[in-house]
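[step 3/7] inverse_fold.run input=structure_tokens len=295
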């Protein structure tokens, strides 16, 4: 048989008061139903839990041991209820976050700091992703929220804009244009060797690079390949070629990296917080709220 939490509460009250009348008052019920409930419990268990007389109520040995287990049962029930309420309010739980590389050095540190300060009991699981994977992972429910370069999300996903960025061209120190000042035309680099990011690494980012070059009339000659923006810039500093990179990422590099703004408009797609369009979980809503500087 299974002892219900209600039965355990009844027995605890009687066992602690050792008086059915006081126990009934404590439970805000009348005495006869309480007495019947304890008798029914003893029948279910097949043992006597209380020795009753006209003058006293005493626990049997079985009753004393059963009391300990009843307290554990009620305690577990109360903890389960508390856990459910905390999860519903977004004060505990696990939040799975995916973010593109540039977010880790820009917007994400402040958001995570605000989130940890206000939700210290929440477990954060963070991974580096590209934008394409982030959208797919949200659809597969492998992520709860993604900080990615926003493109068309469709009806299943919604996005909250964070900022826009711009491409700049990074080049080795000995490049002919390295000593100049002011913006340069991207077309001046049509004959250069390029450090590139393969499309399978990040389709969205790759396509943005290609589009920026094609709008000024050339397709870059990719001779060297990197697996991340930081690797791209490191290879440029080694003198292997030139590349386009987000200005925000370039500004995070040491002073020995040479870069110039470009004349042509070359906006990166907006960096956004993307989540599923269905009813939001409290933790996701709070993460989005933490992106506001007013939090």
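[step 3/7] decode complete -> sequence:
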């Amino acid at each position: 048989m299974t002892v219900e939490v209600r039965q355990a509460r009844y027995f605890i009250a009687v066992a602690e008061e050792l008086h059915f009348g006081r126990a009934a008052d404590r439970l805000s019920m009348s005495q006869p139903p309480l007495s019947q409930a304890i008798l029914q419990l003893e029948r279910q268990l097949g043992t006597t839990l209380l020795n009753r007389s006209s003058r006293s109520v005493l626990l049997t040995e079985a009753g004393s041991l059963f009391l300990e287990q009843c307290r554990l049962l009620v305690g577990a029930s109360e903890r389960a209820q508390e856990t459910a309420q905390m999860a519903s309010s977004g004060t505990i739980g696990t939040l799975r976050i995916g973010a593109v590389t540039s977010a880790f050095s820009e917007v994400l540190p402040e958001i995570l700091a605000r989130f940890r300060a206000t939700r210290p009991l929440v477990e954060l699981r963070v991974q580096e992703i590209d934008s394409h994977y982030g959208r797919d992972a949200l659809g597969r429910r492998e992520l709860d929220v993604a900080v990615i370069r926003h493109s068309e999300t469709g009806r299943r996903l919604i996005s909250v804009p964070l900022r826009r960025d711009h491409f700049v061209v990074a080049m080795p120190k000995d490049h002919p244009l390295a000593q100049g000042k002011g913006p340069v035309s991207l077309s001046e680099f049509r004959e250069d060797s390029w450090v590139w990011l393969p499309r399978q690494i990040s389709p969205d980012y790759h396509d943005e690079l290609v589009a920026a070059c094609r709008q000024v009339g050339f397709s870059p000659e990719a001779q060297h390949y990197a697996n991340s923006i930081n690797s791209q810039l490191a290879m440029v500093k080694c003198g292997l070629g030139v590349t386009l990179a987000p200005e925000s990422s370039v500004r995070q590099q040491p002073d020995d990296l040479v870069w110039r703004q470009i004349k042509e408009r070359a906006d990166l797609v907006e960096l956004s917080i993307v989540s599923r369009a269905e009813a939001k979980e409290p933790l996701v809503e709070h993460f989005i709220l933490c992106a506001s500087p007013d939090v």
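[step 4/7] annotate
The first strand starts at residue 50 and ends at 52.
The chain has a mean pLDDT of 87.
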